[in-house]
Write a structure and sequence with these properties.
With 79 residues, the protein is an alpha+beta fold. The protein is built from 2 helices and 3 strands.
């Protein structure tokens, strides 16, 4: 998922490969929209997806700056 998959006017996010590799859109709450729009400022400009991949043990493949932790937790539904 990339920031380009986010549609701010429709408050939706494109899922490129859902079930059976079909593209679909999910609609976001106002809280999720706020977090998605705040995320790039704390994420930085590194190449890659919108969110860093998670390891099987629940960690991140690459470090996220501590300032991003509250935004990341909220975006994942834990905040």
């Amino acid at each position: 998922m990339a920031l380009a998959d986010y549609e701010p006017v429709a408050w939706s996010m494109r899922i490129r490969y859902g079930k059976r590799n079909k593209e679909r859109y999910v609609y976001l709450t106002s809280s999720a929209v706020g977090r998605i729009e705040a995320w790039p400022a704390v994420r930085g400009s590194d190449r890659g997806g919108l969110f860093p991949p998670f390891t099987p043990r629940g960690g991140h493949d690459r470090a996220i700056r501590p300032a991003a932790w509250p935004v990341a937790a909220g975006a994942a539904g834990r905040g």
